[in-house]
Structures are given as structure tokens and as C-alpha cells.
Design brief:
The chain is built from 5 helices and 11 strands. The protein is of the alpha+beta class. The strands form 3 sheets. The protein has a 5-stranded antiparallel sheet with strand order 10-9-8-7-11. It has helices at residues 3-9, 11-16, 31-45, 89-96, 119-128; strands spanning 19-26, 51-55, 58-65, 68-75, 80-86, 101-104, 145-148, 157-164, 169-176, 179-186, 190-192. Strand 7 and strand 8 form a beta hairpin. It starts with a helix and ends with a strand. The protein folds into 2 domains: 14-128, Alpha-Beta Plaits, CATH 3.30.70.940; 145-192, SH3 type barrels.
């Protein structure tokens, strides 16, 4: 029986042996330490076949200090670490019992395994970090009018002033307080306005 036939017959095997993203809760401010601890445990316990990528979701933020622009990394989700893993009993045990980990998000407790992060949500996070492999094909370009679909500017229209295909973010000029104001929006959250 092929692997696909086996998955069709027994969907539980699919769940048990599929690589997915999970969210691990940590003490706030200890995210990078937990990431290091997990990476060390993966090596020392030989579970490279079950734990893959471990991410602290950070994005660059520009600050002005003493009149100079300084770029620093800002944690997008304080107190959380993303772990790409196959949810086996051993892998689950290792992650749960890593120093600094307080539990998994999406677990109802009582020994119940957690739910994975949806692929769409994880793709959005990876794209914000510039680590996405998937490229979004868009039908708009610089100078086009677009509608913002989500977030605080949802429903607003603006003109695309620049596009970054690596991060898949467009700078959109929206009218705020009578002035064109640039706002960075993910490609997925924009829709071209037809003339």
C-alpha cells in the first residue's frame, strides 16, 4: 500500500507523522534562551527526525536614537516560540520539559496534545520574517490603486508606492488626516481596485 493510500485509509497516521508548526508558551523575555535549549536538546537527544525549525518571530524595527536610525529586532509574539515538529510522544515530552517552556498553546491539558498552527497563519508569520518559500502572485504594481482587506486600515484604498518581493510587502499611500501616509501591507492583504 502506498503512503497516500495509507493516509486515505487511516487519517490518524497522517496527523501523527506530518510535520506541522506548534506554538510553545515561554516565560516572557526567555524566548531566545528556550530556542537555544530546544536546539541543544534536539542534538543531545537525537530527535532531529521529529523537531525541525525553532523560531522566535522577530522583525526589524527602526528607532531614532541620538538623531541616528538604529535597526533592532522586535519580538512579534512575546512569550511564544514556534516549533516545527512531528507530534510524537517523545518529541512532545522533550519540548514540554525543556527549561523555560510553560506549555503548548492549543492543548486542553490533561495530557491532550496541542492543535497545530494553521498553514495560512504560519505562512503569514514566515513572510513577515522574510523566511517564506512561497511567493504570492499579485495582479497589481507600483502606481496601482489597491484596497486593504484586513487590519486597522481594512476597507481603505490607497496607491502602491513600492513593493518588496522578498518580504512580500507593499508600501501603500493611504489618505490619513488629509495627507498621503505610507503603510506597509502584506501582498495577501491587498486587492487591486479595477478602474
Amino acid at each position: 500500500m502506498s503512503e497516500q493510500e495509507e493516509k486515505a485509509v487511516n487519517p490518524i497516521i497522517d496527523e501523527e507523522h506530518e510535520k506541522r508548526w506548534y506554538v510553545v508558551n515561554t516565560y516572557s523575555g526567555h524566548e531566545n534562551r528556550v530556542k537555544e535549549n530546544l536546539e541543544k536538546r534536539v542534538e543531545s537527544m537525537g530527535i532531529q527526525d521529529y523537531l525541525f525549525r525553532i523560531l522566535v518571530a522577530e522583525e526589524a524595527e527602526v528607532e531614532i536614537k541620538n538623531g541616528k536610525q538604529v535597526e533592532k529586532m522586535k519580538n512579534m509574539f512575546p512569550g511564544y516560540v514556534f516549533v516545527e515538529m512531528i507530534m510524537t510522544d517523545d518529541a512532545w515530552y522533550v519540548v514540554r520539559n525543556t527549561p523555560g517552556v510553560t506549555g503548548f498553546i492549543g492543548s486542553s491539558g490533561g495530557g491532550a496534545k496541542p492543535f497545530p498552527v494553521s498553514p495560512v497563519e504560519m505562512e503569514s508569520i514566515l513572510r513577515r520574517m522574510g523566511q517564506s518559500d512561497k511567493k504570492v502572485v499579485v495582479n497589481f504594481g507600483v502606481g496601482d490603486t489597491v484596497r486593504i482587506l484586513t487590519g486597522p486600515f481594512s476597507g481603505m484604498e490607497g496607491r502602491v508606492s513600492s513593493m518588496n518581493d522578498q518580504t512580500q510587502v507593499a508600501s501603500v499611500l493611504t489618505m490619513l488626516f488629509g495627507r498621503d501616509t505610507p503603510t506597509d501591507i502584506n501582498y495577501n492583504d491587498l486587492q487591486k481596485v479595477e478602474d
